[in-house]
Amino acid sequence: MGRATGSWLSGPEFPGATENAYRGEDLGLPETGPGSLAGGWKRVLGLLLDWIIAGGLAVIIFGIKPAQGAASSLEMTMRSASTPQFLIWIAIGVLAVTIFGFTPGQFLAGTRTVRVDFGRERGAAEASGEEPRAAVGIVRALGRMAIMLFVVPALINDYNGRAMHDRATGTAIVLAPGKTRA
Description:
Layout: H1 2-6, H2 40-62, H3 73-99, H4 104-109, E1 111-115, H5 120-128, H6 138-148, H7 152-155, H8 164-169, E2 171-175
Antiparallel strand pairs: 1-2
């Protein structure tokens, strides 16, 4: 019954989605270990850590605000730091991924952003260390952040667990060397 009624609910079929033995196989990524696709919780952890780091930098730059009326000092500080925190988060996301291939939060979570648009053979060679990792570049990093600003695309995943902003820019979040899947 599920196949009869679920055809329009299931969404479009992606090429290669049914032939894969594991997530990331069609991208040339290993099943486990460094270079394999990161799980959803590691991605969320990296994002949360980046947001906390951006908030801390915003408070350091703009200072702690005194209490006003019924609003506490913490509330006034967070109100004044919200827009700078957002801008710092965007800057961290674009600059760090362009230069290093990961944000501070991704580094702490044990993940990194990589290009996966070169095909299966190149992806496998990069994951095994035979080829150097291709740089994500500022255009892709900026594109990822611009799409992520809308929040919803980051919540919609494909069969590989890649969000729409990763799919649109030909990138993926993978486990960094020395890390294992949790």
